[in-house]
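Lab notes, practical 5.
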Amino acid sequence: MHKIYSFADIYYWGVYLLRTHYINELDQKLDRKEVTLCGWVHEVRNIGKIIFMLLRDKTGIVQVTAKEGVVSRELMRSMDLPKESVVMVKGIVSKNAEAKKGFEIIPKEVINLNPLSGKIPFEVTGKVPAELDVRLEYRHIDLRRLETSAIFKIESTMLQAFRNTLLKEGFTEIRTPSIVAAATEGGTDLFPVTYFEKIAYLSQSPQLYKQLAVIGGFDKVFMIVPVFRAEKHNTTEHLNEITQMDIEMGFADHNDAIRMLKKVSLSIIKEVKKRNTEELETLGVSLDIPKPVEVKYKDAIKKINENGLHIEFGEDLKREHELLLTKLYGDFVILKEYPTKVRAFYTMPNEKDPEVSNSFDLIYKGLEISSGAQRIHIPQLLEEAIRRRGMDPKNFEFYINAFRHGAPPHAGWSIGLERFAMKITNMHNIRECSLFPRDRTRVTP
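Output from the prediction step:
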């Protein structure tokens, strides 16, 4: 029986409970030094007179070795724990050429911090595959898998690279509301919420508010926000709550926004390649830096039709079209000048040809991960565009009025974090890239 420690025991230990090192901070220079590690039991092999424990924390795995005659039998018994037990190990770093890291830990004390009282639902080591639905149901366990944690370490790098690149470019980070009075992108795919005596909605996009910030004089802004789409999809590329990485640029057009999209997206890919070598290796991903290619919508649909797929001018691209364009042009395709009627109501029509718009998408590895445009900044044009979509300009009065007070030309875009991460990590289901995904059937955990 392993002792179950009380709160009083833990309080008494005080600082003793805190680790001295993470596993990735250990090296052979610490040979014969005492360390205290905390983490989870990844695996245990008991071969009688010797017990091997693999201890895992967020930074890696290290071997803890107890031999009869070197440590007490009581200590050896304390190491014979179920997988995923949460433990503290106090021991001595010892060089060992046969150990994977070139050293191991000789334990002096092993404390089971919270003995398991429930069955672990699947094999964390990956030796026995588990269905995605089961893993998502027990996401707190799934996050302990090396492959799963690798995805979210990569996403952390992506978010940092996005933020750092834009800060260097003179952008200001802002926050926008998640509760709105009306659709921000038109349509009816909204989640209604009771807001005191009114009905409000969860935001589809920070679009209108980031524009207002530019009009307010911030000039160049960015944000990382959750957005909500009440679309009844059941695909491997859609979620009902996603994380958007958005920018808006004042005194700019769509060409300026495209240049910034290239700079930021490539910076993200480069940073992941540089900083996440171990995680990419864990996932079996060889990440290349793509060469950007810009293609006009009209030229793209001509190529699509010439290569055996059918699409009419004015239709939005489907998945098979995006895959074909990647095959024709490469992994990083900026598709621009979409027909005005298929874009959001606030998209600026082209001056020379109003049938097409100053808009663009980024198709990365066969999937649209970003969309953007120059915005309409003339209030009369904006009212006309809203009416053409069958909406009432009165519902956007606060928005339209802002353009009557000296609104500059401006443009921007958004990147879907989960989609971008999905393609960087070569995952086949976007749910793998959302910490706690929300789709048509899943609202827990």
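Observations recorded by the TA: Residues 7-112 form a domain with the OB fold (Dihydrolipoamide Acetyltransferase, E2P) fold (CATH 2.40.50.140). The longest strand covers residues 34-46.
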